[in-house]
Design goal:
The complex is a heterodimer. Chain A is about 0% helix and about 60% strand. By secondary structure, chain A is an all-beta fold. In chain A, the strands form 2 sheets. In chain A, strands 2, 4, 5, 9, 10 and 11 form a 6-stranded mixed β-sheet that branches. Chain B is built from no helices and 11 strands. In chain B, the strands form 2 sheets. In chain B, strands 2, 4, 5, 6, 9, 10 and 11 form a 7-stranded mixed β-sheet that branches. Chain B is globular. The model of chain B has no long low-confidence stretch (mean pLDDT about 95). At the A-B interface, strand 4, strand 5, strand 9 and strand 10 of A face strand 5 and strand 10 of B.
């Protein structure tokens, strides 16, 4: 079982719609959760972090965390063509006394104008 | 520019040659990480420094790979006797303690 699982997509949504990106993780002691956006050929860019159960909103982005279900999601409201990118879920877990970050393979989002 | 910088941005080398990449983290960040990313995959952890100490090295990292952070500031990643399978984007990230990691632009390596 992979430590962090994401559907690779592509996920296609029309402009203005809500895009819902999902991620599950296997390590129950994971503490921190991040969403990174990565445009083709570029490096990952942090867009959201969440540390406790519930929702966290930042502009058009909402991260949701459910530790009991080992599930984290990212909602993008009013999707724009510029949101088209790969979204990486990242999870930290304790490994040898420090927090190792494990990434999923990323979900490719396509926002159709 | 106060972000993470990496040099070179692109490197083309022939199989069997050695290559070295440099990463300059955000100045106040004490942690530095190296990742490798291939097409269609997420970044894969290679190694991690806290200040000048290399605290963790992935089992995936062969003996041909070595990383240093001699003064706790910039870091270098060297690959000896490169193989075609080493072709990838090599990403450096830094953080302040266990806060979120900030990535540099990456070095794209092509081994011919």
């Amino acid at each position: 079982q992979k430590e962090v699982e994401q559907n690779s997509g592509p996920l296609s949504v029309p402009e203005g719609a809500i895009a819902s990106l999902n991620c599950t993780y296997s390590d129950r002691v994971s503490q921190s959760f991040f969403w990174y956006r990565q445009y083709s050929g570029k490096s990952p860019e942090l867009i959201m972090s969440i540390y406790s159960n519930g929702d966290k909103e930042d502009g058009r982005f909402t991260a949701q965390l459910n530790k009991a279900s080992q599930y984290v999601s990212l909602l993008i409201r009013d999707s724009q063509p510029s949101d088209s990118a790969t979204y990486l879920c990242a999870v930290t877990g304790i490994a040898g006394g420090y927090q190792k970050v494990t990434f999923g393979i990323g979900t490719k989002l396509q926002v159709i104008p | 520019d106060t972000g993470v910088s990496q040099n070179p941005r692109h490197k083309i080398t022939k199989r069997g040659q050695n290559v070295t990449f440099r990463c300059d983290p955000i100045s106040e960040h004490n942690r530095l990480y190296w990742y490798r990313q291939t097409l269609g995959q997420g970044p894969e952890f290679l190694t991690y420094f806290q200040n000048e100490a290399q605290l963790e090295k992935s089992r995936l990292l062969s003996d041909r790979f070595s990383a240093e952070r001699p003064k706790g500031s910039f870091s270098t990643l060297e690959i000896q006797r490169t193989e075609q399978g080493d072709s990838a984007m090599y990403l450096c990230a830094s953080s302040l303690e266990n806060r979120q990691e900030i990535f540099g632009p990456g070095t794209r390596l092509t081994v011919t």
